[in-house]
Design a protein that fits this description.
Shape: elongated
Radius of gyration: 23 Å
Strand content: 25-35%
Oligomer: single chain
Distance between the termini: 58 Å
Number of strands: 5
Structural class: alpha+beta
Order of helices and strands: EEEEEH
């Protein structure tokens, strides 16, 4: 007798609260609850508080002074809490995707895993 293989069908829906954002930094770690916290950050320079422009006779402008904080803003775009199982699954998925990109020549092997060099 042939045993029937079990199947399951997943339907994907997008939450009304779903957002898409740019992240150029990730910060987080293991929480006391056992969940792993990932904060998706966007690092940017602050907007200047004031810029003074000189208006030339032809209507063009030339910046003559700028008041701007000397700092970097880290804006937390979103926070995700992952179970250990999901964290390990994410690691496998990322390793697979990075391997595919290397095979396609989109990124080069790097000594420092935090430093990814893009091919021109």
């Amino acid at each position: 007798m042939v045993e029937e293989k079990k199947q399951i069908t997943f339907k994907t829906e997008t939450s009304e609260s779903h957002i898409t954002f740019l992240s150029n930094r990730i910060w987080g770690g293991l929480r006391p609850s056992g969940l792993f916290e990932l904060n998706f950050l966007l690092e940017t320079m602050p907007l200047p508080d004031m810029i003074t422009m000189e208006i030339n006779p032809d209507g063009t402008e030339k910046e003559v002074s700028r008041i701007q904080a000397n700092e970097i803003i880290r804006e937390n775009q979103a926070t995700a809490y992952l179970t250990l199982e999901t964290l390990l699954s994410l690691q496998t998925w990322l390793n697979d995707k990075i391997g595919d990109m290397k095979k396609r020549g989109l990124i080069q092997k790097v000594d420092n895993p935090m430093e990814v060099k893009e091919n021109d």
